[in-house]
Design goal:
alpha/beta; 7-stranded mixed beta sheet; 6-stranded mixed beta sheet
Length: 314
């Protein structure tokens, strides 16, 4: 290894140790703010599409009786799990529900293997009957969990899942991101997903930078709800979209309502705490009724008949 590479590696190591020291001294004393609201899934109708933002990219969905959880991360820290502790980021805002508060989950949907989307401590808490849909070459990470029905999807692959409440179709699609959990496992996949049931459609964008793949979904739409990440774009613009780009991609796909996620939960980037949601609201100032939620813990219920027709749906 050259002296230049050795110096670069040493600099990265020093930054890592400084970061970990900060996390376990200053950050350990910081209180985690409570969620804005607390959903009550026991009261949700199985005859409707209902979704609550629990924090970061974790959304609890009742899709006409089928219970789905996206990228579940429900503990105070994310990162490398050691006996009795987790080395990594501490939440800014508590999850709106804990694992114990959840209803029985039919399907866990995993977009990619990053620690803030694929939290092993949370995933160990689910019943063995829960099905998992995940990106390709990520199943090995789940080998010590209770899950027994795990399906990997490549882009454009479809999976039909039958549950006691009926059937749901799930299709993986291309996003602009990356899937490595650590530095060298760059072979891991990363997905967005389309969920279809009862002639209704949900788009879960996972993590993505600006991509033309959402326009390609328009033919399979329209979408009743698009769940879009809007944070961590500064300076990571090549792997995370801005709020305005998230709105643009949801419009390209033909979405009626948009649920903004991936903000207000972890300090992953340089933008201020409220900047993503403020920019998102500004981008939709002409049609604010399209905003599904604004704060962690809020619940969205799809109207039985759309209250408007989105100009972005042909």
């Amino acid at each position: 290894m050259s002296n230049k590479n050795q110096n670069l590696g040493g600099s990265r190591a020093r930054r890592l140790y400084a970061y970990l020291w900060h996390e376990w001294t200053i950050e350990s004393r910081r209180q985690i703010a409570p969620a804005f609201a607390r959903p009550n899934p026991a009261e949700w109708s199985d005859n409707r599409l209902t979704a609550a933002w629990l924090g970061h990219a974790t959304v609890l969905i009742n899709f006409f009786g089928i219970k789905i959880l996206t990228d579940p991360v429900l503990f105070p820290r994310i990162g490398i799990r050691l006996p009795g502790l987790t080395l990594g980021l501490k939440r800014l805002t508590a999850p709106a529900l804990t694992v114990r508060d959840l209803p029985k989950i039919d399907i866990v949907l995993l977009s990619h293997a990053h620690f803030d989307h694929f939290d092993m401590r949370t995933l160990h808490r689910f019943h063995r009957s829960t099905r998992v849909i995940t990106a390709h070459r990520t199943t090995d990470l789940l080998r010590w969990t209770r899950f027994r029905d795990v399906s990997e999807l490549h882009w454009k692959e479809r999976k039909s899942v039958s549950t006691s409440a009926g059937k749901i179709d799930i299709v993986a699609f291309r996003v602009k991101h990356w899937g490595a959990r650590k530095r060298r496992d760059t072979y891991r996949g990363y997905n967005g997903y389309v969920l279809e049931r009862n002639d209704r459609r949900i788009l879960f964008g996972g993590d993505t930078a600006l991509s033309d793949s959402f326009a390609e979904l328009r033919a399979s739409g329209p979408f009743d709800l698009a769940i879009m990440s809007i944070g961590a774009y500064n300076p990571w613009i090549y792997s995370h979209c801005t709020p305005e780009q998230a709105v643009h991609m949801a419009n390209e796909a033909g979405a009626h309502f948009i649920m903004p996620v991936h903000h207000q939960t972890f300090r992953l980037s340089a933008e201020d705490f409220r900047e993503p949601i403020e920019r998102f609201q500004a981008a939709l100032h002409k049609t604010p009724e399209r905003i599904a939620v604004r704060d962690i813990g809020e619940t969205f219920v799809l109207p039985e008949m759309p209250i408007f027709r989105s100009p972005f749906v042909s």
